[in-house]
Structures are given as C-alpha cells and as structure tokens.
Fold:
Amino acid sequence: MNLRYYISVILTMLWIDVYAQKITFTGKNIPFEQALEAIRSQTDFTVFGQKTEIQQAKNISIIANNMYLKDFLDAICEVEPFKYNIENKVISLSKIDQQHKSNINSKSNLQKHTRSLIGKIVKKDTEIPIVNATIKIKGTTTQTNSNTNGDFALFYSKAINDPKVEITLLGMKPFQAQLDTIDYQTLKVEMEDETKELDDIVVTGIFNRKKESFSGAYATYNAAQLQMASATNVFEGLQILDPSFQIVQNNNFGSDPNQQLNIEIRGKTSVAAIDDAFGTNPNQPLFILDGFETTMERIRNISIDRLASITILKDATATALYGSKGANGVVVVESKKTKPGELILNYNGYVNFSSPDLKKYNLMNSAEKLQFELLSGYYGQVNEYGQIISNNNNREQTYLNRLKEVKRGVDTYWLNEPIRTGINQSHNFSLDGGDKSFQYSIGLNKQINQGVMKKSGNEVTDGNISLTYRKGKFSFNNVLNARYRVANREPVSFRNFAQANPYYRKKNEEGGIDKYLENIQFDERFNPLYDFNNNNLSKTDGQEIINNLNIEWNIVKGLLLRFNTSISQFRNNGEYFLSPKNSQFANLPMSDRGSFSESKEKILNYNGRATLSYGNTWKKHTINLGSSMSMFHTHNNNSQYGVTGFIDDKIINPQLALTYEIGRRPTYRDVRRRSVGFLINTNYAYDRRFLFDGNFSLDGSSVFGSNRNFTNIYSVGAAWNLNRENFLKEVNWIDQLRIRASYGNQGNQNFNDYIAMQIYQYNTFSSNPFGPGLSISNFGNLNLSWQRTFTQNYSLDFKMLKDRFRIMVDYYLKDTNPLLVSINTASSNGRTDAIQNLGGLKTKGIEGIISVAPILRPQMSWRLDLNISHIRSEYYKIGNKLERLNEKNRNRSMIRYYDGGSPDDLWAVRSLGIDPATGRELFLNQLGKETFVFNYKDEVNFGNSRALFDGNLTSTFYYKNFNFMISFGYELGGKSFMSTLYNKVENISSGSIKYNQDKRALYDRWQKPGDKTSFKSIGLQTSTPMSSRFIQDNNVLRIDALSMSYQNNTWPFLKQIRARSIRLAVGSNRLLYLSSVRNERGIDYPFARDINFSCGISF
Amino acid sequence: MKIIIIPLLCTFILLGFSSCQKWLKITPSDQFSSDELFIDHDGYLKALNGIYIGLNSPKSYGQALTVGTIDALAHYYHINISTHNYHKIATHTYTDSTSLQTFEDIWTSSYKLIADANVILENTPKSPSSALPAPYYSIVKGEALAMRAFLHFDILRLFGPVWTEDSIMEPNLPYALHSGITLHPLLSSKDYLEQVIKDLEEASKLLENDPIRTEGVRHYENPKGDNSLYFRQYRMNYYAIQAMICRAYQWKQDSEKTYILAMQLLSEIRPEQNNKFIYVTHANATHPTLKDRLFSTEVIFSLYSTSRNNLYNNTFSSMLGRQQKLTFNLDNIDMARVKELYDDENDYREDIWQLRTDNNINTINNMKFESIVNAPGQFMMPLIRLSEIILMAAESSPHLSEGINLLNTVRKSRNSIDLYPTDRNALLKFITNEFRKEMIGEGQQFFFYKRTKQSTLPRIDRLTGTTSMFLQNYVIPIPDSENAIR
Structure:
C-alpha cells in the first residue's frame, strides 16, 4: 500500500474504462465476502447481494494479479454460482440457486419471478450517503434498509404489476418512484430533509407561499449556509450571503459586542443624519421571529442551531404583509420546529477566539512624538538646528525631562493595554422527541462573549420549551422562551489609549499605576490605565419571557384558520458607576466626585394575529387567498435616577452617595403604543406560467395621531415562468427562466411615538394657587403625511445546465416621497425645529448573484458565487430648507443636503494641495480660480462614500464529508473621508498636541520652503477646513469568512458513544482587511478578527 | 367553494374593524394630548395656568425680564468687574456669546409661551359651550389673549426700535397669531403695536365681568375649590389689561390717549373711592418681622413664584461672590449709590437696602425679594403696579399742577416729602427718579429709558454719576434662531 498504489488507484478511478479496472487479490479458501471487499476497496464499484446468500456462500480460492475486474468477477462467481450485473458502477449479485431448484419447485418459480432493485441513497446537494432508510415496494411487505454507504438491494416478485418503490426515513421527505418491469434495475435516489421543504416555500412569517408562485423579491438562507458563513453571528452571515443586506460599519464602535448595529436593506429610505429627532433609526429594517416583531438585539444573539431559516423580504410585494412597517425591508427568522420521532439529543457549541485588529494604527513612537512636539513649536520657537530659542512658558525644562526619558529608552506601546484575545463560547443543548400527535422540544443555550477590550462583554442564557399537539384537524403549538442577558462595557474608551504619549511609562518604579503620567499644573496628563483599573461599572442586564401560542384549524382541505398570540415581558436594568478616583473628577470638589445612576425599564407586549387562508388548484388555475387581522399593544415604562458624591470605589452602593445629582430630577416615562392591521393577500397562478400577487392592507396605529389613525398599503406583482412555455419546454439545458415585476407602496413606522401629536406635560417648574399647569412639550405636526416609499422591482431568475449556472438579477427603484425631515423653524413659532414633509429621496439599485458550479458530481462539488450590489440615491425637491443642517455639518462632516446629492455624498471645497513656497493650502473656487481663501460656497460634490460596487465572492467546495468555504468581500469605486489625516495628521490644535498622533504628522507635513508635501506646515495649530485633500479613493478587499467543516455519521467512535452524527468545523471571520486608504479603524473600540471552532453532536 | 370563501374572507376582515378606532386612541399616562385636554373647563384652565407657571422660568420673567438682564440693562447695579455675570449685558455688548444666548432665551421662551397661548385660543370655541361654559370661557379666552399681547409687547419694547416716525414703519418683528410653523410675517412696530392693542381690547371685553371689579382681588382661597377666579393679582385680570392698554398707548407716544385711559383706570381703582388696590400701610411697610417690601396690596399683576427664594439666593444673597451678586456696591459698604437714589431718608423703599454681615464680610444687600415666611406677598414678583399708572398719568397730564399732584401722591404713600418741580422737564426728571425707586427688580426701568430716549444713564462702574447712553444700544438685536430662518 504505497503511495504509487494510491495514485494508480485514483488514476484508475478517474481515467480508465470500467472494464479495464484491475484487481490484485490472492486468497486460499477464504470467505466469498472477502473477495467482494477487495472489489470495493480497490475499485470505486459497489457490490451488492442478499446478505445471507453472500455469507453462506462457499469459500473460494483465487490468485489474481492485476486481473481485469470482469475476469475477477467471473472467477469468484464460479464456485458458488452467482450471476452478476454491472450497471453504473454498481455490481449486483444474485445466486443461481441450484438447491432451490432441486428442492422446492415453488421457490424456483419464485426465483424465476423475482426482480432485483439495487441502488444508492444520498442526500440531495451534499451527496452524503443516507444510512438506514427504509426501502419498500409499495403495497407489499418486501423491504430492506440502506447500509452505511447508502447502498441497498431489494428483490421483489415479478407478479407485482405496476411496481412502485417507496423510500422513507424519519426527518426526510419520502421518496417514491415508478419501477420499470425489468429484471435488474438500478436506482439513484436523492433524498431531501423534511425541513428542506422550506426550499420550495417562501416563509413570509404570515402566509407561506410556494416559491414558484411568488412574485416578490426575497432571499432565504438556511442554518447550514449561515453557519458556514459565520458560526457566531447571523447578521454577519447574512451580509456575506446576500447582496442587499448591509451592516453599515461604524468606524468608532468597531466590533463592540454591546453596540447597536446599523443595518440597511437596499440602502436608505429616510434622512438618517438627523435620526435623533425621531428617537429611532428610520432606516432600520423590521425583524420578525416566528411571526412576531422582535428586536435586532434578539436576533443578533440567537443561536444559529435554533434557526430553521432566515428570509429577507425586499420589495413591496414581499413586505406588503407587514403593511406600514416594511419600507426598510423585513428579516423573517423561523426557528426550528419540533419533529415527530424518537428522542434526539443535540449538542452544538463553539469556541471563538477574537483578537483585535490594530493594523491600521500608525502611531508615533516616543522619539517621533517628542520631535513632533518640538517642531510644532510647543516648547517654544525652534531654530533650524532644532534648538529651542525662545522658551515658551518654561516648557523647555519639560522638554528636557521628556527627552531624558526618551533617551533612557522609554517607548510605551499603550494600545495593547486594554485589549485581549476575547474567548467567546456558545453551548446549545436541545432535546426533541414525541410521537405523531404530541411532540416536545427543550432547548438550552448559553453564550459567553468576551469583547476584545478587557472588561467588556456579555452573557446570554436562553431556554425554551416547545410543545406541539396534533389532533385531527387541529394543531396546537406553544413555545415558552426565557432569556437573561448581562452586558458589561469597558470603562475607558480605546481612544484614550491611542492618545497616550509613548514617552510616559505605564508604571512607576514600584510597579504601581499612577494617576498622573505627568503632573504639570493646568496641564495634567492622566494615565488611562489608572481609570481603567478603577472600580467603574457600566452594566446592563435584562430578562425576557416570551410565550407564543399557535392554534391551527384545517377546516377543510385548503382552508386553514390560524391564531397566533404572543405575550412577552422584558425587564431591563442599567447600573452605571463612575469611580470618584477617575481623572475626570480630579479638579472637582470632593462632594462632586463619582456618580452612580440606575435605570429601569419594563416592557409588556401583547400580540395577536388571526389568519384565514385558502388555497386550491383547479386544472390550470391555482389560487391562494389569505386574510389576516392583527393587533399589537406595547407598554413601555422606564425610569432613571442618579446620585453623586462618593468617597471610595471599593463598594458600589448608591446609599454611599453624598447627594442626588444637583439640579436634576429623576426621569420617568410611560409610553403605550397600539396598532392593528387588516390584510388581504391574493395570489393566482395560471398553468404555473403566469403568476399574480396582490396585497392590500389597512393599518392603524396610535403613532399616526388621532386624525390619521389608518393608512393603506398596497402592492401588485406578476411573474412569468418562461421555462414552462412551449417554446422553451424542449430546451433541456434551461432549468428555470422567469421574470418578475412588482410595484407598491411601503410604510415606515420607525419614528418617535408622538411626532404627529400635540402633547402637554405638567409644568413642574413652580406652583401656584391655581392648581396644576400644563405646557406643550411636543407641538407635533397634526398635518404630517406619512412617509411612504414607492418601490418598483424587476427581476430575472435564470438557471441552466442542471443548476451548474445561475443568474439572479434584481433592479429596483425606491422613491420616498415625501420624506419626514426635522427642519429648523423660526423661533417665533415657539419651537426651533419641527418635523415636516419635505422633498424626496430616490434610490436606484441593482443587485445580482452569479453562481457557477465547475464541479457538480456526487460526493464532490464546487460552487462559486459572486454577489454584486450597486446603489445610488438622490434627494430632490429639498431646495434650501436644510441649509441650517448643512451649516451645522460644516467642519463636522462632509454630508450635505442638496437636490441631486445623495445621503452618502461627500461635499468639499476642491484643494490644490499645499503651496510649497508658503506651506499654506491652495483652493479652487467656483470660478475655477486658485485661492488661499477657503469658502464653503465653493463646495462641490466630490464623490460618494458608498462603493460603486460591493459584494462578496464566495467559493464553497464540498467533498464527501468535508465542506470548505471562503468568502471575499470587496468594495470598489467609493471615496473615503480620511478622518485620521484630518484629525491626527493635520488639525492638531494646540490643545491636542499633548495626545499621540499619526506618524505622518511628523514626516509628511511641510517644514521649510520648497517642501512638496500634502499637509500644511508642522508649526501651524490652526484648524484646517475639510477640503477635498482629505478625500481618497477607497477600495477594499476583505476575507470575510473562511471555514471548513466535517460531518460524519459512520465513525466507529460514534457508535461507541451512541451518537448518531457529528459535525466539526473551524472558521474565521474578518481575517483580513486590505484597503487602499490608511485610516485608523476602531477609534473607541477596536475591530476584531475571529477564529472559531465548533462542534455538533446528536445522540 | 370559491363562492363561499370570498365573502367569508371579507366578513373576517370587517369583523371588529369599527371598534378599532377607539382601541387605537391611547392616552399617555404621564402626559396629555391636546385632544384629551380640551374636553372640559378644567383642561383649559390647566393649559392656561401652564402659561402663568411658565413665566417663572429664570430665562423669562423669573429672572431675566425682572431682576436680571433687564435691570442690568437699566444700569441699576454696580458692576465694576469684567468677570461679573451681567457685565457684558450692562455694557451693552450684545454680540458676546453669553449676551446672545441670554436674549435668545428670552425670545424663545416668550414665543414658546405665546405658542401655548395660541394653542389654547385655537382650541377655544367661538362662544361658551358645554366643554367651556361661562364664566370660564371669558377667563380662558380673555386671559390667553391678554397674555399673548403682554408677551408680544415686551418683545416689542426689548427688540423693537426706539420709537420714531421712521423707525416704526420698518417691518422687523413677527406677531404670532397662530401656533403653526408657517413663518409669521414681520410687522412694522406701528402695526405690531396695533395688534397688541387689538388683542388687549378684545381681552378687555371678554373680561368685563371679572370679579375683581366687584369683589376686589380676593386674596384668599375659594371656599368651593377652584381658584381661577380668586387671587386675581396673579392673573391677567381686567385692570391689568387696562394698565397694559395704557402702557401700549404710552409706548406709542400718544400722551393724550394715555392720560385719558390712565385717569379712567385710576378713577375705578383709586383707593380713596374704591378699595381695589390699597397703598401700603405704615404698619406693613415698617413691620419689624413681616415687612411688606413689595407693597403687595398695590400690585395689579404679578408672578406667583414659589422659587423666589432660589432667585434671591442666586442673585442678591449676601453669601454670593462678586461675580454673581446684584447690589449697589460690590466692593464695600459705601452707601453713596443708595443715598443718590433715595432723596428722602424716610422713604419706605430705601428699606430694601440692608447691611449684612456674613462670613465676617460686610455687604450691602437688596432685600426686596428676600423670602419672608408669612410676610405679605411672600411669593410675589410684581409685573404691573398701581404707582406706574399714577406716574403714567402724571407724565401725560396736560396740566403741570395735576402732574405734580399725582407725583406727590406716590411720594406720600412712600412716606416722602412732596416735591415742587417748576417746569415739565423737572417734573419728568422727578418722575424718572420716582420710577427708578419704584421699579427696581420689576423690569420696567429700561423700557422707561428707551421710551423717553434718555441719553444718560447712571454709571455702573462707579457708585455715583452718569454715563452716556447711545440710542442704538436700546435696541437688542433679533436672535439668530429667528434671523437665520428668514
């Protein structure tokens, strides 16, 4: 068994004709079975026969040296006469039974009248052999089971007319096939998971529609796909898999596990920059878990093993079911359903190591920093030899002290202080069981997430019990879910460590950590480590209990009545303590040092939905009708108080505070919100060729204000299955060709509760003999019309060559008109801003998936998927109404609101760079003339910060039990504002010179006449306006995911521990980030790279 | 089958639809929506009282427009250090960021209260109804209208021009007649003032039956509960409206009309004939413990300020540092400024200036707003008082002798000797001085100077003497939050 042998076998397998396969086997008086085993091991042929016949066969003797397979078979079948048949690499043996012939006539008759069926059962797509499936000839008792390779052989009577085979296995979709009336038949069976039914169904959360007859734009991903993309975070997985789903990166928050994510589906529909005016993010999609609205946070922490699928609903037809809330798209999450069957215990877990990615930091070392301070004139005027000639505020001595430290070799790297390799783990146990009428499932999940910054992280404990009872036409399902979450935040922002100077030592001589790095009066330098090590607390914990009850009544075939109710309660607590020792309190009187505040939140939700749906087919007509009525009530109650003045931080107890916060009162809010929805959904298909969808819903919400309680949402959609047309029916290589279109209006409720209401609040400022006084706290805008987004969607789905090649393209237009915008009003109106309807936002986008499978063979496949997304938006009819916002953004960001501009555009005055003679910046004004004068009036649209194209290229490779995946993310053609250049190379004010800066501030700034640099004079501390000099082309290449998994159910080891199957995987996320710009990433919290190991066993 | 299904679905949809509208009406438990507030007179009264309470904000009449900013502008206090909180204001440096913010706050808080008043007016029915029956109807509508005029009038006096034939024709201030967000057109000062008078006259008609006319101020609790027709000094009552009309005509430089109206008002409230507003008694003015330093019985309209103690502690208290304190001498106990103002040492009003020793430091303190428990007018901050009307009549009287008489009426009530000015100019000078003594902490003096176009004001950097005042410094620039939008 040397290497050459292996190679020869592989070559044999691949290249040499079936009959040219050779066997080398020698044995004397050995069991027949051994010879068969030799065939199995030395060729890729499978051999079958009735087990007893083979076992009872006489021993044989054979000497075969490179014998042809056919000869070998002939030789071994001689002794105990077998006849064999070879077809499609399967050898079937059947005994030429002489005994039977001689003994019992009837048996010989039977033998004469039997047919054999041999075959192999594999899982669809993955080609994993299916073990222990029951193969049965329909209407008889003749049956057998598949072996560990998924192979089987079955003999049945010729007497059966019209034989049909039925293959069943629990959890798999039953398979049936008509058999030919021939003596030897081989069959390859591809079985599908029962849950894979989802593949044919669009889970909208309310009505499930057959994929084929649905014209909306959506995408569904199952747990396995998500797990390959990201074992730890479903959102990250969705971003990799779907071109329309985007987690908008926040450079400040990095990979902070406790920070809210900003998620967009197909871009923005609202003016986002002023979202504080609305209280919520008006561009956030809606999240649905098992039919009910839920929070983003809930989905973010859900264990992937609990998921059945995630569906993203994108266009008007798909989201119309969610009425006035669907404008930003809907993410529908379905958890696993209980299945009848024997007791199954599953364990799934992962360990994830996340390490901070600090590659983009380019900070000065101690010598560089000191040199920079010197050249900037901080210590006084410097001559050309670098000597201080005019001492500034006695700072020369300070310089010399620091220089001494630098010369002694002090060069502190502060960035590694607050960080660590975070170890995240998740353990998920589930127990399923039950019979046809009663099933139960118990799940328990524990997640411990450590952030890459020390002291930050969260823990989630989640338990659920699901009970299902089916009786006749009724089915009841109740899921009780309880969850507890604790989150801790880091006490000091990462920014402070990046700002600390490298010429200070972290620790004093005794090894302790001092509060001051340097204690100069009015210019104290604090040690960020000191604050970090103080006993600060920023902790939130929350409990939630959710109970969902689902009752279904199958009134008659096709007519289904369903009631869903959900009650949930959330209690959230927040505790925040700032140690009195913290540097921020250093200059305050003792009584004001330290603070503690506590917040409490209580949310109670009731939800109910009744759905009546009917579906039937008459000849070529298929019709689906549905109507639904839903109601929603939420009651949110929160309060907060704070105390101040602490002496010590050893014990965190509000009782130890000296006083309440001066001039502040406890806050208390009690908000209720209700909504109802009525929905009619129709779907009609003719001959499976033409499909129509229509939705109409009437939504009422207490948010809409009393004058406009109700709003209506509609959508229409159509699709044409071209591949079912006669003219294409004959074209075999086309699997699917269909075009779809939809149109509809979508609503958005992600706005503050009372924007349309006039609200009075008690005036607690003073009191008088006239009783309480009320004043208007919120004027509202009673005449507000609701923000609507009109969406058009056009799609093409094309699959060919047995799914070797797929193209799916969606083109969409979104038009939000009018927008809801908070604009400034004249203060003589009694307020300084008001929410108004203004202008509109048009978005055009195209997204596509191109998928090619160069290898698509049993047991081995390789598929490449390319996702592309392109979005461009444009404001219109805004006029100059938002000029005040533009002014506000000056020197803060490059975002402006002008007609024709996009929310992502960067506006800047064109810069010609630094004048080598003077070190001052030269600009180009509107007339195209060079000028030293910066004027905001000269601003032009300099480019879009959103990439022209972005997406992922994903390669999945499957071989036998192995699965490999790698996914590259790319962003091409976008522009980026260089915040690091702006804040840490230039614009270093006299106040911020004391912080550490980017190396380029020392090396790349103008120093003397004739220097050709991009950055102004090193000695200038004046603020630089944001000009086009700080915009650069940004192209990004990332490795978003890299993973490998192995699945097995035949290991002997598994039998020993009585397990059914095992899945092992290793994966990595955000392994690599390459960008054409050098900008610091993760300002307040670093980004993390993840490597995870996961394991799943079921018993 | 199909025939049955469709109607079934439709009935399903319609089921319960009608009752949903009601279910969707949510009443927030910690707040009120205007729909549910204006359903009975109680709601209207609460909203109206919100305006009176809102006046107490320190950004508004609680400090800035009474004891603070406005009096600093009138050069009442000795402010000789540049770090003093009111230094920028008192030196008329209106472009300074703290000054800008101060006037911004005055402007926005006034217009906020105006908007509140407008919402009440917009929700008030055309005539008394079941939701708002008489007499509440006239109280709510009349007082809201009058408050709207009152607030607007002070905006005009502060941000409007010095009254000249040319300046009053220039459009420069918005008069808010509705609560919406459409821009209010800028009115010329002439039209603006007409609108103020129009609102006041309408309010006056509505409040014709104000119980103050028959039963006096009723400074006591209503035995039956609701106090909105009691404590009339603290509400925009009928007489306060009449006084406001007088003020408006006086601002319009229409002395004839001012005289007629002031005399008419005095004839109705003159203490000799009808005890509406009684002069302070000797006993009360000199009471050893419960002094009535505000002469509370003479006050026609005032704030009810339960936070007056805070105000005193933050502005006048002897404990305050030099940068915060408002006094007649920041440095020592030299009473020169007091002596210069009060010509008669028996004057009750001089009593507000007291020597205090705290932390071993002797200081001169303004005790006018010190909170004395159970003293008359403990929570009072006067906005209109009787003496203003009398001095108004004195100033506008066509007869010198009548003017002198009226002036001496005020002086007599203050325990001061009579004065005998020989001509109109001298009379005006005495009236100015009298006004200054009367109005300290009540926010009227700056407007008096502006109206009479005084070119000299008392010094702020020294205890005595005068300094010149430029007329343009009487005009406060309109804040950015208004200007930037226009």
